[in-house]
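User: Show me an example of a complex going from sequences to structure tokens.

Assistant: Sure. Here are the input components:
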Amino acid sequence: MLLMPRWDEHSPLPHYVQLYETIKQEISSGQLAVGSRLPSIRKLADLLAISTTPVELAYQQLIAEGFIESKPKRGYYVQHLPEPYMRLGEEKRETNAASDHLLWSGRRYRYDFHVSKNDFRVFPFRTWRRLFQRVLHPDSKELLFYGDPQGELGLRQEIARYLYHFRGVKCSPEQIVVGAEQHLLLSFLAQILKSYATGIGVENPGYPLVSSTFRQRGYDVVPIALEEDGLSVEELYKHDVQLAYVSPSHQYPQGMMLPIGKRLQLLEWAEKVDGFVIEDDYDGEFRYQGRPIPSLQGLLPDSRVIYLGGFSQSLAPALCINYMVLPAILLDDFRRFYWETLFEQSSSPLHQQTLQLFMQEGHWERHVRKMRNIYRRKHDRLVASIQDHFQERGHIIGRGAGFHLLLRVDSPKPEAALLQEAKDAGIRIASAAYTWHVPTERKEFIFGFGGIDIDDIDPGIASLHQVWFS
Amino acid sequence: MLLMPRWDEHSPLPHYVQLYETIKQEISSGQLAVGSRLPSIRKLADLLAISTTPVELAYQQLIAEGFIESKPKRGYYVQHLPEPYMRLGEEKRETNAASDHLLWSGRRYRYDFHVSKNDFRVFPFRTWRRLFQRVLHPDSKELLFYGDPQGELGLRQEIARYLYHFRGVKCSPEQIVVGAEQHLLLSFLAQILKSYATGIGVENPGYPLVSSTFRQRGYDVVPIALEEDGLSVEELYKHDVQLAYVSPSHQYPQGMMLPIGKRLQLLEWAEKVDGFVIEDDYDGEFRYQGRPIPSLQGLLPDSRVIYLGGFSQSLAPALCINYMVLPAILLDDFRRFYWETLFEQSSSPLHQQTLQLFMQEGHWERHVRKMRNIYRRKHDRLVASIQDHFQERGHIIGRGAGFHLLLRVDSPKPEAALLQEAKDAGIRIASAAYTWHVPTERKEFIFGFGGIDIDDIDPGIASLHQVWFS
């Protein structure tokens, strides 16, 4: 029998969509078995105390998509799911680290350590709404047109100013390229760099999006092993690569910081091979012990570094504002690429303008400070709870920064079993396996602490230890 | 001496940005010659009756970017512009059709026949702001997270319903992929279709973005000549291409409509070569004589057609919401591509949700009807004015639909001279040359009528005829 749909009365989604998604979720998760019979429209409407229309709409949609079938005079029955859909379900369950974004339809976890969740309760709703009202106004209706293909100039000026003061990045607004999404910016990069490079060395383990994007664009992607203090520059020299991707402030996912010596070696390498370093500074502002580490980009003047940044982790992914900072020598190539393509700006000028005002009025710096304090407290709580409950059975890797840490677990159980046990207990964690170029079982798990309520951290860790070791 | 900057008191841009952009514009357009001296900060501040701070900020920025230099004790002087920037300026002047989007810094035209301008005065500001307030709310804070990589389900359902009723497109929400920008969706497509195709036939003349995107992804791009009634299907058979790009409702830019016979031939061709037709329906709703032509996609069940649509022309480009409808047989490939890449959704879930509510509450259909009437009146006015003033000296091509028409001019002057004369008279039109794979001088010009005030159309055409033929 169908479970009660999760109503969210404040949800902008109409009833029939919520109902549709609940049922679809029940079916794909197997909770509603193939062949089982759904309640009649009338019955379900009564049960939920709503009119029959939304129920009918939901059923029609499910029939259209082949989830259920209507047998005349007999009712509605769950269909066998099409192959691709099942596979999608499977894969989603596995790669729940980076990709389980479908919050509406995705199952709710009691304790959610999702790696890229933010604490949206502290999003500056009122300020943002006020500024958006100013931007979306008949008097500035030009903003409804296509934006600057490189990003709104005013925003790029604010970003340049901020990066200089807080990340030590040295650039002019002309060097900044704004885009809605990182894969898109990386695709631009792969296109622009074609005349400079055929191969790219990437951190192993590391952030998979970079490898996949450059591989799709025909580059050799060479996994470079990490040493205790980060990527091995010697290794880079051994391969025919002219690009290197690193996350020097806080390696993803291992969390080590690239020391000054290696930073200089890396810049020297780029000079020697006429290549470029791609610096991903995804959480550079968020260091909880001592001062933030200045960027690699600003270490030497005119360095051959492409800097990647964005506002997803510190503000909200839904604004779809990311950017890259190009070395001056690549600006000409970027412009040629633009004129050969004539792509449009993908990041909404309305959000860009709102963010620009948000930064100009000083809200942004305050917000980052606030988030840093919140995340620091969560980080400290998570570290303490793990040490408390796991003691010598758990080894913490990469503490002190960002939004996640890594836990290596000393257990005889296979990794898959540990993941399943966590899932069954309503605890969302991810295996770090997806960050390895050749996934191997290491029993290392990624714990994101950005989204979870601070008071849920200790109970969550306690019950995880309980299910794993009792 | 510096011209008075164009102040826009309602602009969300601060004074120093507007000032910076004006000066930059004067310099790149040559109105401020190399070596000429700018007024002192004090002087300019007085002249504009503002404090010295914004002037100083603007000057500092211009120095940083190398537009001007500060000579101690002597003042600020215009520098020689760096090569790439000059080239950018040059090219922008030439390809002003698709790409001259920098409204803030771009020169204002007295009569603006920009091809992709909309009439933003009729944008539903109040409704949209109200709905956005509902979406950006603490109670639905999950919307701040990453959206569904394929697009918000609720919006895809609304789009599917709309397309079925108004464009005769037959699809389920599962077949719709939402993205911020067309180049991005076409890149996805180029990646997904790699296992099906090596070459693509494109309309010549036609929309350049498709050619450039597929060429960058390694496809052979074969220009296919247009006949009186559109793309020649016989030509397609002669080449080793498995993809064909067409704009069947209203060919861009020539404006002919692909007749039913050719539509069936095209679908048959796709079956025969196991290929696909890419249907660009960029202005399908906007037909001013008789009923809209139903889409090619819906002509036959399960046809091998990829349908492209979006909300830029009918609502606003700044929302960054475009989409494609994939044939069911490509869904598996799309999902595999997604799982190999793990890209994020590029179109802001906040805008998507707002649009979904806009459609659910019936505003969208009303808005399209309203826009169609407005654009019809402008279309008719433009046709009448041209016939009136140009008579046998101008030949109108592709009337009756969309947002533009083509004018072939019978004049002894070279095309470049005609463009310059129009520009000097403050009239923005574009040469159709950029739509030809081998640009040739044809003295055909694209007149967009979407953005211009209806009462400016006749004076604009009158003065254009005046400067060209007196």
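The lines above are the inputs; the final block is the predicted structure for all two components together. Chain B has three domains: 15-81, 111-122+366-469, 146-361.
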